[in-house]
Amino acid sequence: MADLLHHDGKAHGVHLRVFAAGQRLHDDVLRAVHDDLGGLGGSHTLVVQHAALGPQYPQRTGAEGLAAVAQLGQLLGGQAILNAAQSFGLGTPALLAPGLKSAAGELPSAADLQNAGSLASLSFGQGGLTVTPLQVTAMFNAIASGGVYHSPCIVSSITGGTQVPQQPQPAAACSPAVARVLQSMLTTVVRSGIGGDAQPHTGTAAGKTGTAQTGQFDADGRELLHYWFAGFYPADAPRYTITVLQDSQQKPQTSSAALFAQVADALAVLDAAITEKPAENS
């Protein structure tokens, strides 16, 4: 539980903070670009770059891709990215239960983002940004929920006269149109992109891989990394939002996307058992 709530893993490669900033673009432009570039295998960075900078920009990967995202960050501006990140719950603790809050993570200040280097780092998920697995889950849940952010909570009520602190009301993180585009993109990542390991045996899934640098190294001088996969299941009618984080590893034996698929398959079995139970008792 402590790791889930307080682990500050830099979510490099989970580009939803840039996607979220894409809500500042016109919905019709973003949707049209997605329709035109739907076969690109789920590179969120690439699709948003095209939406903001125009389809004349070539496909870019690796260092060139990061440069394109930095260029997008300059175009959007630091304040727009911060506003979008905050709309998805980043930089804010969640009140989970009386006396129990999650970690807030970290966001750079607007003043910090006046520096071009800091703005570029934030644009592709590094620099002054840290997030918890719970925050990443809530962010993807907002996309699955049509753009509505629900603050995580693990206590719905308490008996015996103790009052439960008022939970924040659901709030719009992005427009429903942008959420639909993001849902489609994330589905493409699993169906035909780099997240294919996340495809469950039953039903559809949507999500995104992410690899975070830690600055920590093993005895052989190899950097230890955080390996993420976050998404929702089923993709066409989301019921569950799932985040897998493999913490500080050189290379895991099983990808985080494959572990996501195993969780989704287990949930499918559980759902089937719950659905069949009334019929057995009738």
**What's the count of strands?**
7
Strand arrangement, major sheet: 5-6-7
Determine the strand fraction and express it as a percent band: 5-15%
Q: Round the mean pLDDT to the nearest integer and report it.
A: 77
Number of helices: 10
Structural class estimated from helices and strands: alpha+beta
Radius of gyration: 19 Å
Low-pLDDT segments? 8-61
What portion of residues is helical?
40-55%
How many strands, what sense, and barrel or not for the largest sheet? 3 strands, antiparallel
List the helices and strands in order: HHHHHHEEHHEEHEEEH
What is the 3D form?
globular
What's the end-to-end separation, in Å? Answer: 39 Å
How would you explain this protein's 3D organization?
There is one protein chain. The chain is α+β, with helices and mostly antiparallel strands and 282 residues long. It is built from 10 helices and 7 strands. It has helices at residues 2-6, 16-21, 27-36, 44-53, 62-76, 78-87, 116-123, 133-144, 176-192, 256-281, and strands at residues 95-97, 100-101, 148-149, 171-172, 206-217, 223-233, 240-249. Strands 5-6-7 form a 3-stranded antiparallel β-sheet, with helices on both faces. The chain has a two-stranded antiparallel sheet with strand order 1-2. Strands 3-4 form a two-stranded antiparallel sheet. Strand 1 (95-97) and strand 2 (100-101) form a beta hairpin. Helix 3 (27-36) packs parallel to helix 9 (176-192) and helix 5 packs across helix 7. The longest helix has 26 residues, at 256-281. The radius of gyration is 19 Å and the shape is globular. Residues 8-61 have low confidence and may be disordered.
